[in-house]
Write a structure and sequence with these properties.
251 residues, alpha/beta, Rossmann fold, six-stranded mixed sheet, four-stranded antiparallel sheet, binds adenosine-5'-diphosphate
């Protein structure tokens, strides 16, 4: 088991407003972490801080046992932002092109696409059963198909950690279920660690083995089993809410 992320006493401010306070948690290889909290709790901010997109105001972030400032293997971390934040309906690219873009971040200039890149992209499309979409314009696809393409783009660089920001909101219940299943497979079969930001507190315990609940502060970090047994959490959330998070949990 190796360490992928460690944050220590991490705080983040936007201007003078603190939106994350004293967050310490760890992610190890193979973990599946459900990142939950109310709207505006700082979930996206936490992910952006981990990815180095916004600076930590205090505290530390380590990635693969390196200080974040010294870390440069960004291909090991795949990030799937909320739908529509990347796919503009007019974005003129095919599925295969989008997936090949996932290889660009690791290249030194000149950033050219090679035959090998094309093959890798093709392989991933095969794996996800969407190679029939490869020449389609991304904007013409359904929400569920677009999600798969973004997943293919993230997977093409063989990441060890995938971070999903609210993947299920744009999907109908059936696509959502199959998307969760797919994430679960990536975790269980390929051993890719997962952080999944979700509103689906009723579902997440079915898949994730750890719960990270933040509301500016870290409210809980640990196993679902311990969360469900915790009297402190029962008191914090009320027994009804605690039960709602726990009832699907069957690990
Ligand atoms: P969540 O993902 O849990 O909904 P966010 O991380 O998006 O929460 O936001 C946390 C808080 O930070 C919210 O109060 C939000 O309004 C604020 N916030 C988010 N982005 C910015 C920004 N770029 N500038 C200022 N405030 C922001």
């Amino acid at each position: 088991m190796s360490r992928i992320i460690a944050t220590k006493n991490l705080s983040v401010y936007y201007d003078k407003i603190e939106v994350l306070h004293d967050i310490s948690f760890t992610v190890n290889s193979g973990d599946f972490i459900g990142l939950v909290g109310p709207n505006g709790a700082g979930k996206t901010t936490l992910v952006k801080a981990i990815l180095g997109l916004i600076p930590a105001s205090s505290g530390k972030i380590e990635l693969f046992n390196n200080d974040q400032n010294k870390f440069n293997s960004w291909g090991k971390i795949g990030y799937l932002p909320q739908k529509n934040s990347t796919i503009n309906s007019l974005f003129p690219a095919t599925v295969l092109e989008i997936v090949m873009l996932g290889l660009m971040s690791q290249k030194k200039s000149p950033k050219r696409i090679t035959k090998n890149d094309r093959m890798k992209a093709q392989e991933i499309l095969d794996k996800l059963n969407i190679s029939d979409l490869k020449d389609k314009m991304i904007s013409k696809l359904s929400g569920g198909q677009q999600q798969k393409v973004l997943l293919a783009r993230a997977l093409v660089s063989n990441p060890e950690l995938l971070i999903f920001d609210e993947p299920s909101t744009a999907l109908d219940p059936q696509s959502r279920e199959s998307f969760f299943e797919m994430i679960n497979k990536l975790n269980k079969d390929l051993g890719i660690a997962i952080i999944l930001i979700t509103h689906d507190t009723a579902y997440i315990g079915e898949y994730a083995n750890e719960l990270l609940y933040i509301d500016k502060d870290l409210i809980y970090f640990g196993s679902f089993a311990d969360f469900c047994r915790s009297e402190k959490m029962g008191a914090y959330f009320g027994n009804y809410e605690q039960h709602a998070i726990c009832h699907q949990h069957n690990h």
